[in-house]
Amino acid sequence: MKKHFGIVCLALLLSATAFAQTKNFQRTVEFAPGGDLRVNTDLGTLRLTAWDRPEVEVVARISGREGNGTSAEDMRRSVELTQIEVTGGDGQPLSIRANYDGGNPENKKIWISWNRHPPFIEWEIRAPRQLNLTLDVDRSETAEVRGFEGRHVLNSDRTALRLDDLSGDLRLDIDRGQGSQLNNVRGKLMIEADRTNLSFERLQLTGDSKVQIDRGTLDMRMAGAAGLSVSMNKERRSSFKSDFPFTMNSSNEDKIEGTINGGGPRLTLHTDRTQVHLRN
After folding, report:
1. What share of the chain has pLDDT > 70, as a percent?
2. Could you tell me the CA-to-CA distances from 151 to 70, 168, 187, 267 in Å, in that order?
3. What's the pLDDT tens digit per position in 39-71?
4. Alpha helices in the chain (DSSP H)
5. Of 8, 147, 162, 230, which has the fewest CB atoms closer than 10 Å, so is most exposed?
6. Hey, which bits of 44-159 come out as E strands?
7. Within the chain, which residues score under 70 in pLDDT?
8. Parallel, antiparallel or unpaired: strands 149-157 and 132-138
9. Which of 47, 5, 29 is nearest to 95 (CA)?
10. What is the pLDDT of residues 136-168, one digit of tens each?
């Protein structure tokens, strides 16, 4: 009987410890379509999708993360200190971020003692379709953004991006983005990418755009047979290929100028050690 009682107590203790190493957050706030939304995430996953309600819903699951020298108590404490902050609104930008020190900067010393292993956060955010998005994402496993119209500024470091059904002006600064995918994007582009493979499906350029990419591949499958003017500056082992009939206006070792289907919005490419392929 005593042995059985001990096993039950141990099971309850392990269950309580596991529970203490995770917690959930959920909040819904009013948000007028066309407003500014700022999201800052790292060390986790993000799924940010559009819906037709005039509000933003934030769901986050916070889990302790193991690391060298990180104990169960460290993980429990890291989860306890981590707070999800949703601030602004009422005509001001709505901001969503994680605060890892529990609102007390002195707790940063504890965070450092965890060997820099703050919790893992799984984000699910839904927001109105029309908005201006600023996203900063760092060291996340994945970041998915789907279904928005407006001005979008996305800064990504060591994260694979998946962008679907976006329209408007897109400014993307991405470093070590692995194989990032952009599907059904319509609008103007301003992209800086380093050590990243970028692939587009059903891309429609509606205005002059610029892509600067270093050490990667750029695979752009265009939607339809729209006209395009291309200017490419290429350095060190860069190459250019087009599935479309390409009218060459000028070409030398460092630069290519030409048009597709009579010309249209200008696509300016600056590449270094990059293979570019325009696909039909």
Report:
1. 86
2. 41, 6, 10, 19
3. 999 889 999 999 999 999 999 999 987 766 667
4. 2-20, 72-81, 108-113
5. 8
6. 44-51, 55-63, 83-89, 92-99, 120-128, 132-138, 142-146, 149-157
7. 1-20, 67-70, 102-117
8. parallel
9. 29
10. 999 999 999 999 999 999 999 999 999 999 999
